[in-house]
């Protein structure tokens, strides 16, 4: 594993440090991974908040109830740990595991053109978010899009028909009137 920090474009956000836990400098982590404990598979994190970047090494971690708690090497003071709250937890894209051909990381979908079955450009994928039922794609208008409406599409097999990363397109079964 390289100790050279990745550039900002090469980093993927896997979670966020939200607060301290206990008195020995442990931190509470909100993980975007599924399952949430997967963020602990990465022993080196790049922490990022505004223009501040830190490289840290994870000494240990555990799931405590519904909360993920991490111990960072060299961080043994609660008050110092408190200053880590709000940092995004990032890793280099190259460290992410390979996915099968029909699976994608969210960052790969961001920026794709979204085209309906009639060939109309609905916009581009701005970002995704998770709900209890399924992930949701936020499609924002772009140059050449059908109209100036923002759309929320479910990321389901019924809605997303195909994804072509090399063409930069996502084909969807979605009524443009919605």
Automatic annotation (TrEMBL):
Task: Please provide the record's keywords in A-Z order.
Answer: Chaperone, Cytoplasm, Ribosome biogenesis, rRNA processing
Pfam families hit by this protein = PRC_RimM (PF24986), RimM (PF01782)
InterPro entries per UniProt: PRC_barrel-like_sf, PRC_RimM, RimM, RimM_N, RimM_N_sf, Transl_B-barrel_sf
Please state every residue range assigned to the domain named Ribosome maturation factor RimM PRC barrel: 106-175
| Tree of life domain | Bacteria
Q: Which family does it belong to?
A: Belongs to the RimM family.
Note the subunit structure.
Binds ribosomal protein uS19.
Q: What is this protein called?
A: Ribosome maturation factor RimM
Which gene name does the record give? rimM
């Amino acid at each position: 594993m390289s100790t050279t920090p990745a550039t900002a474009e090469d980093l993927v956000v896997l979670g966020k440090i939200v607060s301290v836990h206990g008195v020995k400098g442990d931190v509470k982590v909100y993980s975007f991974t599924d399952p949430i404990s997967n963020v602990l598979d990465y022993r080196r994190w790049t922490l990022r908040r505004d223009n501040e970047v830190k490289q840290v090494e994870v000494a240990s971690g555990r799931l405590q109830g519904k909360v993920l708690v991490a111990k960072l090497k060299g961080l043994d003071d609660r008050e110092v740990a408190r200053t880590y709250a709000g940092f995004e937890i990032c890793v280099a894209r190259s460290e992410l595991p390979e996915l099968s051909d029909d699976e994608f990381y969210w960052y790969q979908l961001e920026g794709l053109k979204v085209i309906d079955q009639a060939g109309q450009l609905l916009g581009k994928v701005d970002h995704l978010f998770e709900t209890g039922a399924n992930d949701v794609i936020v499609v924002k208008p772009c140059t050449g899009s059908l109209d100036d409406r923002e759309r929320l599409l479910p990321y389901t097999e019924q809605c997303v028909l195909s994804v072509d990363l090399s063409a930069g397109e996502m084909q969807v079964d979605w009524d443009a009137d919605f």
